Amino acid sequence: MDNITHSLAGALLGQMGLKRLTARAMPTLIIAANLPDIDALTLILGGNEHLAHRRGITHGPIAMVVLPIILTGLVLLYDKWRPAKETVKPGWILACAFIGCLSHPALDWLNVYGIRFLEPFSDEWYAGDTLFIIDIWVWLALLGGIHFSRGIEKRGGRRFGFPAALSFILISAYIVGNGWLTGQAETQSREIVGKQYRIIPERVVAAPVPFEFWRREIYWRGGYLYGSGEYGFPDGALLTGRPEPISFDHPALAAARDRDDVEAYLFWSRMPVVVEKDGRVLLKDQRFMDEGVSNAFTVDLGPAE
């Protein structure tokens, strides 16, 4: 998910009551909720090579132990430099750092980009395909929970954690509901592809779209072909367009397999395809074919023959 969502999630956890545990708990939760994204530093590699490093080792099990410990040390050092008005309890700071860090991969798993939960022990990608990467409805629920909780707190109310907890419950129900929609979309799409093209898809992705949480864009592949469709509740799934060849035997790809950017892209991509456009051969991912984002997820393999 985006870093606004991660930050608000950390703040919501604090308002649910965790910030009562110790001074500095709230900033610790918010920083920890964003900390695994230190892998964004790999953007300095340029091109597409950073894709192979994102949502990997800094989101894996070793990082979920090491990062909270490092953050706890930094918070305690900062508190020695600028002591808080109340006592900072190292054990609770460490607990908040762990909880905040763990919230990050849990949220990142929900979108189509995916995450390598087990890096460095396994480089397999996992994706929940449940929420769009920037979900306005989750933003509103997070903001609402934090706002009403803070309002009660400022008025001296002791039960300020209730609105935050209610927001957490509503968001959890929203995630479960969206997971059900994704499951319906993928199941129906598999059946339609099988009936219409006599193909058993090796992969079907039902990608959430902005704002309209009840809709999905469908991407499928199988039998050396790939195609797309759409799903809307309650109407159901519908295939659109004609299947296209995946073209993984394209000579331009074979000639470029020793390139670092190509290998990094293929390591990252869940649904790679080779297409020819405007006289060029391009390596793309079905999830990111839209003109608005495709340039950031495209490798130019060279001129078409």
Automatic annotation (TrEMBL):
Membrane-traversing stretches: 56-78, 90-110, 130-148, 160-181
InterPro entries (alphabetical):
Transcription_regulator, YdjM-like
Q: A Pfam family name for this chain?
A: YdjM
The terms under GO molecular function for this entry are: hydrolase activity
Give the record's keywords alphabetically.
Hydrolase, Membrane, Transmembrane, Transmembrane helix
Name the UniProt record assigns to this protein? Metal-dependent hydrolase
Task: State the organism named in the record.
Answer: Sphingomicrobium sediminis
**Classification lineage:** Bacteria, Pseudomonadati, Pseudomonadota, Alphaproteobacteria, Sphingomonadales
